[in-house]
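[job 0412] stage=fold_complex status=start
inputs:
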Amino acid sequence: MSRPGISLGNNLKADIAPFTTACVPGTFTAMAEAPILRLVGVSKSYDTVAVLRNVNLDLHRGESLAFVGPSGSGKSTLLNIIGTLDRPSSGQVFLDDKDLSQLDDPKLAQVRNRHIGFVFQSHHLLPHCNVLENVLVPTLVNKTDQTERAHKLLGRVGLGDRLTHRPGQLSGGERQRVAVVRALINEPKLLLADEPTGSLDRASAAEVAELLVELNREQGVTLIVVTHALDLAQRMGRRFEIRRGELVP
Ligand code: ADP
Ligand code: MG
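[job 0412] stage=fold_complex status=done
writing structure:
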């Protein structure tokens, strides 16, 4: 049906234009689901220094994303805001439609413990606890028994026979693999990794990078990586550079 004075053909073209990528595999699922993470106008300043300016981002379940950029560009600041370790100066962060700015610090800590897994450049394992105990530390808050999952995941990352070893008895790469398992133990919605391969030798870095990519696929965990390593960044589904406080695709 057409109405006088309106060219239906042109309208149709304009209506369809935003959806030209709709038949790319996976797009329909992604569009149907609400984003797991949404940043709306996120800015962060320290005193008079603006580190992040009006950052907007939608991330869907199961996606992987890298933030790259020179040292001091605001990568960790942004990751910490996403991970509820820090709050934006203005703007909002939604995790599964929940506005995190509405939560007080104890509630935020609950969200963090339950839904977010962190891997840092340094493994931060407890030196007096063994591998299995280290992995189970995040489960102590919820008092859920995840021993079986811990065994399974440690086996998955090739450390099934190292359960009773202490961090000091492991290589750097092995310690970082334990840290990755610890981050995943509570089945988080988001896995955040800040320079996860930054302090590893080449071979271990490649191993940990491979592991993160595989776990994102296998476990369906949504992954955000901050990295200087271009090869790791290139293996993420999406990449953004932080330039002058803004996200540049
Ligand atoms: P990156 O991770 O990209 O190296 P950061 O996010 O750590 O960068 O830091 C971005 C900028 O914010 C830097 O100039 C840094 O000095 C500054 N900054 C970070 N944290 C603080 C803080 N707590 N107080 C003041 N300035 C900070
Ligand atoms: Mg940093």
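[job 0412] summary: The chain is about 35% helix and 25% strand.
[job 0412] exit 0
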